[in-house]
Design goal:
This protein is α/β, with parallel strands linked by helices. Helix 1 packs across helix 7 and helix 12 runs parallel beside helix 17. The chain is built from 17 helices and 13 strands. It folds into 3 domains: 138 residues, Nitrogenase molybdenum iron protein domain (Rossmann fold), CATH 3.40.50.1980; 104 residues, Rossmann fold (3-Layer(aba) Sandwich), CATH 3.40.50; 152 residues, Rossmann fold. The strands form 3 sheets. Strands 11-10-9-12-13 form a 5-stranded parallel beta sheet, with helices on both faces. A 4-stranded parallel beta sheet has the order 2-1-3-4, with helices on both faces. The protein is globular and about 70 Å long. The structure holds iron/sulfur cluster. Iron/sulfur cluster binds next to helix 2.
Length: 438
């Protein structure tokens, strides 16, 4: 059910443009530019820098009172000039913030005018996306940015025989590296997009380029129109996005899968890869699957019947809830900050006895956790106050995670990632039981 409260107290979601940054940061030579007031960009780059422990530059058109009254066209054009001169990007991803959306700037039209009159724009792709935070969450910002990229750039040429592997929801750089390994080990040619594996998890270097190295090559983004199939991994309950656009526009068959968290959802991805490649699962993954089963049996004595609350991004929450059910745990609260009816439907199917919430905030989660006697919380660090006040152990997963190290290296996908999750939940519970009162 969706929250009916008149005010949101500590939302369980983030601003819509923030999601777009995670896509733009996964494209080679791409610089994000927010059209709106400066505070949005300051807040979001600090927020992401704390999570990834990497510098995350986001330019801003810094709209002021004058722009709010007379329109932000001049600011946007000047902002584009400054970004091109300062960063020399191959792509600029423009995301709007609440102010620009409220005054109603026609960003695509301003971009067309800029491209027509400005010689500096000649070698730069500009991708404008509409991301009003009052309308939707960061997850929707992520989806529209991914769709905006293929809408702007995908171009028909000759068949490439590859598979588009679209990362449909926010995962860690370690998870992206896992997906690469998986497709490589299966011998499949692919285009992975967006690829944050290096751009948001760089190696130590004295030479800090203005735009981090890595990301999906631009040629690959263009070539998505020529692939033989698209798999959106983590696009199970999302509204139509990049994969649907490629299917409609270029007739590329599209399958949207859940994030491969849990035995069932990992098997589902494996079945899709078997179908695409005509090859059985490589033996190393068979062994990983066996190890996951073994770990589940081992941890069962700690985890069985434990009453849990899981919250955060839709696809991640569904995968975690699924593995909780496979383990014989007792998910009582399944919540997301996104307003996503498809999520609510799937969550109710996966965990029929649970309280399913969308558009949730932490006030609501805290009240439910108290009344349902929750023993374990699983979700981003933003639930730490609920954990502290209710004296409930918390396993930090997903974004954001500001108060612990390792968010970029947290592997949750596949049999191996699911095993990490099982062990993580069991260990957090054991630690809390062993804690000596101060
Ligand atoms: S809610 Fe809107 S104005 Fe506030 S930080 Fe987010 S995008 Fe900016």
């Amino acid at each position: 059910m969706i929250s009916k409260s008149l005010a949101t107290v500590n939302p369980c979601s983030m601003c819509m443009p923030m999601g777009s940054v995670l896509v733009f940061r996964g494209i080679e030579g791409c610089m994000p530019l927010f059209h709106g007031s400066q505070g949005c960009s300051t807040y979001m780059r600090l927020y992401l820098a704390h999570h990834f422990r990497e510098p995350v530059d986001i330019a801003s058109t810094a709209l002021n009172e004058k722009g709010a009254v007379y329109g932000g066209s001049a600011n946007l054009m000047q902002g584009l000039r400054n970004v091109i001169k300062g960063y020399n990007p191959k792509v600029i991803g423009i995301a709007t913030t609440c102010l620009a959306e409220t005054i109603g700037d026609d960003v695509p039209q301003i971009v067309r005018e800029f491209q027509a009159q400005e010689p500096l724009a000649k070698d730069v792709v500009i991708v404008p996306v509409s991301t009003p935070s009052y309308a939707a969450s960061h997850e929707v910002g992520y989806r529209v940015a991914l769709k905006g990229l293929v809408q702007t750039m995908a171009a028909k040429s000759k068949p490439n025989g590859r598979i588009n592997m679209l990362v449909g929801s926010i995962i860690s750089p370690a998870d992206v590296r896992f997906l690469r390994r998986l497709f490589d080990d299966w011998g499949l040619g692919y285009i992975l997009m967006p690829d944050i594996s290096e751009t948001l998890d760089a190696t130590l270097s004295s030479d800090l380029p203005p735009i981090p190295k890595g990301g999906t090559p631009l040629e690959d983004v263009r070539d998505t129109a020529n692939s033989r199939a698209t798999l959106t991994i983590g696009g199970w309950v999302q509204e139509p996005g990049a994969g649907d656009y490629l299917e409609k526009e270029f007739h590329i068959p599209h399958v949207a899968l859940p994030l491969p968290i849990s035995l069932e959802f990992s098997d589902r991805l494996a079945a899709a890869l078997e179908e695409q490649s005509g090859m059985p699962m490589p033996e190393s993954y068979e062994r990983q699957r066996g190890r996951l089963l073994d770990t589940m049996v081992d941890a069962h004595k700690v985890l069985a019947d434990v009453r849990t609350a899981v919250y955060g991004d839709t696809e991640m929450v569904l995968g975690i809830t699924r593995i909780m059910m496979e383990l014989g745990m007792n998910p009582q609260i399944v919540a997301t900050g996104a307003a996503n009816p498809a999520f609510a439907e799937k969550a109710a199917e996966i965990a029929p006895g649970s309280k399913v919430s969308m558009g949730a905030d932490f006030l609501q989660i805290a009240e439910e956790a108290k009344s349902r006697d929750i023993e374990l919380l699983v979700g981003p660090f933003t639930g730490r106050r609920v954990a502290r006040e209710g004296n409930i152990p918390l396993l930090r997963v997903g974004l954001p995670n500001h108060d612990r190290f390792g968010a970029s290296h947290q592997l949750l996908l596949g049999y191996e990632g699911s095993m990490n999750l099982v062990e993580g939940m069991a260990n957090v519970l054991l630690e809390s039981r062993e804690r000596v009162p101060a």
